Amino acid sequence: MNEQTTVELRRPVVVGALGALALVGLYMGIVRIGSASWPHVVELLLTDWYFVAAVATGFGVQIGLFAHLRQVVRQNHGTRSAATMAAGGTATSTTSMVACCLHHLADVLPVIGLSGAAVFFTTYKVPVILFGLATNALGIGMMIRTIRRHSRMECAQEGRTDMAPGTFVETAGKETLPLQITGMSCASCVASIEGAVGNLPGIVSVAVNLNAGTGRVEYDPATVTPVQIKRTIRDLGYDAAERLEGTAALDREREARQREIVNQGRWMLVAWPLALVVMLGTFQDVWILPRYVPKFFGNPLLLFGLTTPIVFGPGWQFFVNSYRGLRHGVADMNLLYATGIGAAYLIAVINTFWPDAGFGGPEAVFYEAAALLTAFIILGRYLEALTRGRASEAIRKLMSLQPKIARVVRGETEVEIPADEVEVGDVVVVRPGERIPVDGVVLEGYSAVDQSMLTGESMPVEKRAGDEVIGGTMNKTGAFRFRANRVGRETALAQIIALVENAQASKAPIQKLADLVAGKFIFWVHVLSLTVFLFWFFVGYGLFFSPETRLMLTPYTLAGVGVFGFALLVSVAVLVISCPCAVGMATPSAMMAGTGKAAEHGILFKGADAVEAASKLTAIIFDKTGTLTRGEPAVTDIVPVQGVAAAEVLGLAAAAEVNSEHPLGEAIVRGARDRGISVASPETFEAVPGHGVTAHAAGHAILLGNRKLMLDGGVAVDAVSTDAERLEYEGKTVMFLAADGRLAGLIAVADTLKAHSADAIRLLHDLGLEVAMLTGDNRRTAEAIARQLGIDRVLAEVLPQDKAVEVRALQAAGRRVAMVGDGINDAPALAQADVGMAIGSGTDIAKETGHVVLVKDDLRDVVTTIEVARATMRKVKQNLFWAFVYNAVTIPLAAGLLYPWTRQLVSPELAAFLMAISSLTVTLNTVLLKRFVPSLRREPVRRAESTALAPVAGGGS
């Protein structure tokens, strides 16, 4: 042992010794008050020396360890639970010592108004001392474990002299460990696992999802290993294994849930029949039961024999898991259950075999409380296991889409192989009624493919040579062959599953309060329960007790239960009725259901924070090109002069532009061919920069361009000038056409709107959102499009690098902004927005920037995104409201707040029933989110007439 270590240990040893001596001095000082002389004090000390020595030693050790831990607590956040337990142990040590000596003052305390304290400490000296010693031992064990963990962290960080203990420096070697965790039952289980794993050295972050039964740990492999992480979780009483992929993960999750259902169902078969017999025996002399229930059913020895298998069978899991959790310095719902069941059972046993011990006597035999309490808790666990998987049904549906077999071409034959063995470049054959195994491009054949499970499209999509197909979608009609270009984790289905899983594992900001409450809940409920016991024992029983006292919803009276039994009954009810599960489950269960529902409609949230942010949006910014519009110009209007056909105007213009590479020229040629117009090749062609083109084609000398070109060619445009001004006001590019020196007409070209742009803007207005458009185009064109769509604000002539600045400006004005873009040149703006939505991603899901990925190229999905987010957050708030209101109402009720007026108490078994119903209510309320249907599906949408679909002016359709 080096000198520094000796110096570090010297102070805690001295503090501990002084603490032990101080406690002995306290004992002697209190005894001296009621004694005639110091020799008599020494005589009494020798009488109780074993109690005094045990308590003083425990107190001294704990004080010394606590002094050593103070520095650790300041440097390592993870030791706060040990510090709290140490403080609690210190308090109970002092109480134990006081109990050793206050019985000597039975004649003195009543004089100063403490007769109740004198009676309590005289009657219950031994139980109080034993409780203090047990708490001392628990605190000492937790602190020793914390000190050892701290030492391991220092060893792991040896050589990093610039690091404080418990800190972590992120390295390039950071890795992620996905876990499948079974055995969790409530939010406190999540807090326990996150706290215990988070205390390990080298842990960057821990996220556990109760409903999915999954966890994700980021760690430094140079400091901690996956084996250590999984061992820590198993030591808490849970099972942890590395999460598999695809259907293997689905199978393991289903097996684990089914195993939990079978286990709890088996325990129900044990607990409920015995518990009902115990209840009948307890109430044998009540109501009409004496006619049907034999008198010996009420024999305490029989009740003991029936209750013991329940406590040490179905109920034993709670004691084991409590012990495992406390070893790691964490407390969960198992501790509440174990305390409630153990207290009721232990007092019943003492009052059965030692009725004069002072714990209420034969009237305080609460076997039915321990039995029914266990039975109701097991019932709650069983129902939760049945319903928990339903919130994650969407992810299981997605996983089940992956086919197991693929048919590939090998040489001239077709061979069936496992789908996960398909390689990039393989030619895959798909027949009608089969699922497409991987992503690829159609080589030959024609079919209609149902993509509804991935993209939400209600109608099958036609596929022919050159079209992309997505793995997991259903081939409906024809057969085709395609070349695989994405397999394994790169397929769109795998990317969607990964995004949904990540979103479900993440935590929304609103969950911070719930996590804080759930994390501290167990400790403070125990404190409240102890406070309630002390109140009713010392004050409440004497002031309010009535022989007419009954347990709620029963005819059972508590006339002879005694002060101890009465106070114990109330405190146990407080322990059992409290439900941090509902608080902790409120947010993650709703987020899981909401993100799964969004995925069904082709909307992928990248995190729970995106769901919450999307529900609060007040403004939506759309990028114009490629988002509101198709991103390529098209012929929108043809205005011929009198005597000339629209088809002739378009045909001559196309002939002049057929060899042009200008986007407007290509649009004219494409427009002519789409309308079935034959396009002649020009004999000559010349581009006039900044003005247009000249050409000879089909026997005509052609001029196609702007007014300047017509003026230079001596062509008057007065006949169509009014139409030209109108079209230019609408933001379209106008080109005049002259043939053989005479004006033939004009053609208007514009970037046309997508089919559902107007519908989307109208629906967003219906949701109360402000809509803006962001574009680099000139203001006249931008405002023309805005007028067609009903957009509120136009941000025009904005360079790509300045788009994020415009988003920031709206945010500075107090708006919560979403940016919708195609993700190509919108990345900075998507990242700056409160919610960035990348639209029309198709199969390139993983490459998208932003917080939400919209798989389909349909702007109405922006509306659905907001509706899903709002529906999800409504469920979150409903769940939180119910959870907090439940605890705020039932805990005071169980504590006896209304007892002075009602003369009724909540029994422990009724408390257990209410607790189980609370958790189940939150789960069922979340499952109702499955019934959510977007407004687009609920009623036919009135489709605004789109420019892209309007007939070309002049009849040249």
Please give a handful of descriptors for the protein shown:
disordered C terminus; 34 helices; six-stranded antiparallel beta sheet; 957 residues; elongated; alpha+beta; seven-stranded mixed beta sheet
Secondary structure layout plus pairing:
Layout: H1 3-33, H2 38-47, H3 49-75, H4 80-102, H5 115-123, H6 125-156, E1 175-182, H7 187-198, E2 203-209, E3 214-219, H8 226-235, E4 239-242, H9 246-282, H10 289-292, H11 300-312, H12 316-327, H13 333-353, H14 367-388, H15 393-400, E5 405-410, E6 413-418, E7 427-430, E8 439-445, E9 447-450, H16 452-455, E10 461-463, E11 468-469, E12 474-475, E13 480-486, H17 492-505, H18 511-544, E14 550-551, H19 562-577, H20 580-600, E15 603-605, H21 608-615, E16 619-623, H22 624-628, E17 629-640, H23 646-657, H24 663-674, E18 684-688, E19 692-697, E20 700-705, H25 707-712, H26 721-729, E21 733-739, E22 742-753, H27 757-766, E23 770-774, H28 779-789, E24 793-795, H29 803-812, E25 817-821, H30 827-832, E26 835-839, E27 852-854, H31 860-894, H32 899-902, E28 904-905, H33 908-927, H34 935-938
Parallel strand pairs: 14-28, 16-23, 16-25, 23-24, 25-26, 26-27
Antiparallel strand pairs: 1-3, 1-4, 2-3, 5-6, 5-7, 7-13, 8-11, 8-13, 9-10, 9-12, 15-27, 17-22, 18-19, 19-20, 20-21, 21-22
Helix pairs in contact: 1-2, 1-3, 1-4, 3-4, 3-6, 4-5, 4-6, 7-18, 9-11, 9-14, 11-13, 11-14, 12-13, 13-14, 13-19, 14-33, 17-20, 18-19, 18-20, 19-31, 19-33, 20-31, 20-33, 21-31, 23-24, 27-31, 31-33
Helix percent band: 40-55%
Number of strands: 28
Low-confidence segments: 76-82, 156-172, 941-957
Overall geometry comes to elongated
How much of the polypeptide forms β-strand, as a percent range?
15-25%
Give the strand line-up of the largest sheet: 15-27-26-25-16-23-24
Termini separation: 95 Å
Please compute the radius of gyration using only Cα atoms: 38 Å
